[in-house]
Design a protein that fits this description.
The chain has 132 residues and is an alpha+beta fold. It is built from two helices and seven strands, in the order ββαββββαβ. A three-stranded antiparallel sheet has the order 2-6-5.
Length: 132
């Protein structure tokens, strides 16, 4: 049996893309007793919608679909999508209202995500192994 010492070096990607997403929410359709409450709810909804769009870009979408057929006649047709993931490091670039719609624009700089990841996980590869 040999004792060994392993040296690691940190691996960094060659480039870092910047992902962008936009979320929309109708103000008048939100629940609330007055316009201010409805606008606050639309702000939250549009932000969540933008985060959902970022999650789609990062993790993809799971699509489930099916059709029920009885007597050679389509009875039921369904389509369902699901997005699941964690988004860290996104920034709100703009948030504003246009007519009855609230809009939130998000940006996810993958360099920032990488820096957050390095701080937590510290990915590495073997640089050198010395046997004794």
């Amino acid at each position: 049996m040999f004792d060994k010492h392993v040296e690691y070096k940190y691996v960094e990607p060659n480039n870092y893309p910047v992902l962008k997403a936009v979320g929309y929410a109708p103000i008048s359709l939100q629940s609330g007793v007055n316009k201010s409450q409805k606008q606050l709810m639309a702000i939250k909804a549009s932000k969540l919608e933008a985060y959902r769009e970022l999650a789609e870009q990062v993790y993809g979408q799971q699509i489930t679909a099916g059709t029920t057929v009885a007597g050679s006649i389509a009875q039921d047709d369904y389509l369902q999508s699901k997005v699941q993931g964690i988004i860290k490091g996104a920034q709100v670039i703009k948030a504003y209202a246009v007519d009855d719609t609230y809009i939130t624009e998000l940006e996810l700089n993958m360099k920032r995500v990488h820096d957050l990841y390095i701080g937590e996980i510290k990915p590495r590869e073997v640089k050198k192994v010395t046997y004794y």
